[in-house]
Amino acid sequence: MTDQRVTDHETEVRRVADTSTPNATSGNWALEARGLGKRYRRGWALRDCSFRIPAGRICGLVGPNGAGKSTLLGLATRQVQPTTGDLRVFGVPVDDPAVLPQVAFLGQDKPLFKRFTVAETLRMGAELNPGWDAAAAHRIVRAGNVPMDARVGTLSGGQRTRVAFALAFGKRPDLLLLDEPMSDLDPLARDEMSTLLMAEAVERGTTVVMSSHMLTELEDMCDYLLVVSEGRIRMAGDADALVPAHTLVTGVARDGSLPPELAAHTIVESRLQGRQFQAMVRPRGPLPADWERAEPSLEEVLLAHLRSPDAPPLYTQGARVDAEGTQAA
């Protein structure tokens, strides 16, 4: 099997009508990055990242280990300072103290005080957050039959995650950032927590940005995607527009090589197997009639982009801004 990768770095922007996406002047963007970058001694973790995430969406943050996902979340939570560029939260610079009450962050380690009881943990949340929603926090805990007098250290993984979500939603954030907080849960607990997350986010209109390696989970939960690879944005925009922009084609290879007609389209990934070729493409015109065509799943599109970081990036309309902050064409 031979992989053929496109090395053209030209950005491809698809103009897709979407009435749920804010216009460029509305300011209703939960996260907006312009030329964002972070460099450590070993090199760039993120570089030249420009994107927008609309308010009220559930955005999947996708990428392999070391792609820059945690660095991006660190920048959004002020745990990491940018080397270049600008990041705004609901139109306000991320380093403005006014941003803090609007954002909640929940990481994989879910740092809770193990000696605190559940009741003490929620009381701490109330004391630290002026806009605390005690009713919502208690509802989330009680819905999972978590004893209020139990110490956090004695709870199961699913129960601890539920308490952590209660703290996050009790803050009443406008933006909830999740760095794989459900990765250590069994399938039943993951399903329970996913349902909880969706219900609470929809009820409150909370914007959620969640990093996850579970592609099927993202397909079920997310309506917006941000794909990162090798520190750069590879795809950004509405999931319902990104997937149909791709076509999976299969045909007969000629003399052991890809057909020249394939070069007329944007190739994300291609491979030769025996006398056949298969390619994930973004068509730029009609495809040959003798090629078999199929619409790929979200998982197939994501895997193709993650395996081919040199494929030209793809943004849906409104998802990308240039370094000066104007909407990209």
Automatic annotation (TrEMBL):
Source species of the chain: Streptomyces rubiginosohelvolus
Pfam families per record: ABC_tran
Record lineage: Bacteria, Bacillati, Actinomycetota, Actinomycetes, Kitasatosporales
Descriptive protein name: ABC transporter ATP-binding protein
InterPro entries per record: AAA+_ATPase, ABC_transporter-like_ATP-bd, ABC_transporter-like_CS, ABC_Transporter_VariousFunc, P-loop_NTPase
Residue ranges occupied by any ABC transporter domain in the UniProt entry: 31-255
Keywords: ATP-binding, Nucleotide-binding, Transport
Transport is among the record's keywords: yes
This protein's record includes keyword ATP-binding: yes
Residue spans crossing the bilayer: none
Comp. bias intervals (Basic and acidic residues): 1-17
